[in-house]
From TrEMBL:
Alphabetical list of InterPro entries matching this protein: CarboxyPept-like_regulatory, Transthyretin-like_sf
Species annotation: Chryseobacterium fistulae
Protein name: Carboxypeptidase regulatory-like domain-containing protein
Gene3D superfamilies associated with the record: 2.60.40.3330
Source organism superkingdom: Bacteria
Length: 620
């Protein structure tokens, strides 16, 4: 009958914190013949646990009878020959790697440790008809912390995070261990709390021995007494990308050992000020267009050829304070005739409050007491409404909120500029007979409106202190185009209508049905498609046709080549395969000619959608 030892190995890091010994080798030996089996079998494991030296490992090789490796949960299974089943057995384990999630296991010299001399108590299992003896052991923290730290340079922090007021665990929050150094503070490691608020952080001595000379010279940089080698640990928190100061350097635990056990609680969330200085750096959160390198100085457009329109996010970083004083900031603009024109130092005008669309500039963070959703954040707005948190203006200066739990935006929107309020919106009435489609629409009544060019800059200062004003980012002049087209013809003469408030005027018609009754003239032998598309920043214009074709026959339109601004117009005909076919060879049926066009306009977050029109006809 088979004899199997089923076991588990774990270790304490703290009295209330443990971990499994995964992927270690468990070795079973016969005892020495001259040993007092009764005495060693009765001894407590805390008195028998020891490191096995290399010469001793070699001396007992001939007594090795079984070996297995633990799984990720510390479980192992050993088959014991029946002839040894009545003997006492020595249990050792050896390890050459130690796990340290989420990093790869730390490798080192393989070392072996003796646990105890074990007398199996065999019990038969009815299901498998085998004899099983169970063995489990949890290594005391004083041993395991030394093994991990001294031999494998793995240092561990084990703790629990709760709400100070309710005592409830704070789940899903990242705990960050920091080392307070004389020169610069190092991040030792981080881990996210589980549903009970527990966390484990693993790090190595390299994480707290960094200096400004690293990696050439690595030493612990705290030069204050008592000159011990362990880090000086304090904690910060992070949730949804925002860091909070749970503790400061003054709360540090000096020169901690290989294992640190902590109970942490948070009563309020105090955001950590970013190290990035306040500045204006980009247009748009999505496209993130640099205010200098991302703009073509010759055209004022983005490197992709886009002009700006509508509401544009001005992206950058703000902070609560400058020089320990509350911060306020202001945006200014300057119009130039051409984007290459030099800026006038005295030509700046303030962006006034009504030029600013509703903007989120940061959040208030609070603990909820809800285990499943421990943190709540409320937006802080420029031009908020109702009960929303909204900033105060100091004239045209935007005052950064000073609430203790306010986190200001970092590399995010800090003002949403209404370019329509900046430039005004020009409306052009495109009302004209359908017979005018395909011809130029520019006239004194429908003038050519060009892009306008504006440089944007940010200024910042201590609250109310003009002596501290500094410029924190100036853009190249950018092209802006805010024109709306009214009474734009749609569906030609076939089902004629007009539409308003179009960013792009686009129309199509057929010459052969313009003079027909109600636009429903039938097509027989000719088809001349007339089209017009108008916007200062046209990107493309294309025609297509939908309808049946004969076997082997295909038809379509040649590509439309854009004309100079502000419009592309003309007339074209179908191109057939085979080329000898004509409109007369179309099958008798209904067909639809469609036109689409794009204008290269962007907000920095989204581009203008394509515009469409179509006209249908019957072929007889």
């Amino acid at each position: 009958m088979r004899h199997i030892i089923k076991g588990n190995l774990a270790a304490y890091l703290c009295r209330d914190c443990s971990e499994y010994l995964s992927q270690v080798k468990v070795r079973v030996y016969l005892p020495q013949s001259d040993i007092n089996l009764a005495a060693v079998s009765a001894a407590e494991i805390k008195d028998t646990f020891k490191e096995v030296k290399e010469e001793e490992i070699k001396s007992k090789e001939n007594r090795l009878i079984a070996e297995a490796e633990t799984d990720m949960n510390g479980n192992f299974s050993l088959v014991i020959d029946e002839k040894y089943s009545r003997s006492s057995l020595e249990i050792d384990f050896s390890c050459g790697t130690i796990s340290r999630p989420p990093l790869t296991p730390k490798k080192g010299k393989e070392r072996q440790f003796h646990i105890t001399t074990f007398v199996p108590q065999w019990k038969i299992t009815k299901e498998e008809q085998i004899l099983v003896a169970n063995f489990s052991y949890i290594i005391p923290e004083k041993w395991w912390c030394i093994i991990k730290g001294r031999y494998f340079d793995i240092w561990t922090i084990c703790g629990r995070l709760t709400d100070c007021q309710t005592g409830k665990p704070l789940a899903g929050i990242t705990v960050i261990a920091m080392d307070a150094d004389f020169i610069t503070d190092d991040e030792l490691g981080r881990n996210t709390t589980d549903s009970n608020g527990h966390f484990k952080i693993y790090y190595t001595s390299a994480d707290f021995k960094k200096t400004f000379l690293s990696p050439i010279i690595n030493i612990e940089t705290d030069v204050l007494p008592p000159f011990a080698s362990g880090p000086d640990v304090y904690f910060q928190l992070e949730y949804s990308g925002q860091r909070f100061a749970l503790e400061t350097k003054s709360n540090r635990r000096d020169n901690v050992g290989y294992c640190l056990c902590v109970k942490l609680c948070s009563k309020e969330l105090i955001p950590v000020e970013p190290s990035i200085p306040p500045s204006f750096t980009h247009f748009g959160l999505t496209q993130h267009i640099p205010i200098q390198a991302g703009i073509n100085l010759a055209t004022g457009k983005t490197l992709g050829g886009y002009a700006f329109f509508s509401s544009v996010n001005l992206v950058g970083t703000i902070s609560k304070k400058i020089n320990v004083q509350p911060m306020e900031y202001l945006f200014e603009y300057q119009e130039v005739t051409n984007p290459i024109d030099p800026l006038n130092p005295a030509g700046w005008n303030p962006v006034v409050p009504n030029m600013i669309d509703k903007t989120v500039i940061g959040y208030l963070w609070t603990l909820t007491g809800d285990v499943s959703n421990p943190v709540h954040y409320d937006p802080y707005y420029i031009n908020g409404t109702g009960t929303e948190n909204t900033i105060n203006f100091n004239g045209n200066w935007i005052q950064v909120p000073q609430d203790s739990n306010f986190a200001a935006h970092v590399d995010a929107e800090i003002l949403k500029l209404s370019t329509e309020k900046l430039t005004g919106v020009t409306s052009i009435d495109m009302n004209m007979p359908t017979s005018s489609i395909g011809n130029s629409s520019v006239s004194p009544a429908r003038p050519h409106i060009s892009n306008r060019y504006f440089a944007i800059r940010m200024k910042q200062r201590e609250l109310g202190n003009s002596a501290t004003e500094v410029v924190a980012g100036t853009s190249k002049p950018i092209a802006i185009y805010n024109v709306l087209y009214q009474n734009v013809n749609k569906h030609g003469s076939w089902a004629h209508t007009t539409v308003n408030n179009q960013y792009l005027a686009l129309s199509v018609d057929l010459e052969e049905i313009i003079s027909g009754s109600g636009g429903c003239s039938k097509i027989t032998t000719d088809l001349h498609v007339k089209y017009g598309a108008r916007n200062e920043n046209l990107g493309s214009v294309s025609l297509s046709i939908t309808g049946p074709h004969k076997p082997g026959q295909s038809f379509g339109f040649n590509p439309i080549v854009l004309m100079s601004s502000p419009e592309t117009y003309g007339s074209t005909q179908l191109v057939f395969t085979p080329p000898t076919d004509t409109v007369a060879d179309l099958l008798p049926c209904a067909y639809t000619v469609s036109i689409s066009a794009t204008a290269l306009l962007t907000t920095g977050d989204s581009n203008l959608d394509s515009y469409y029109d179509f006209v249908s006809f019957c072929k007889i």
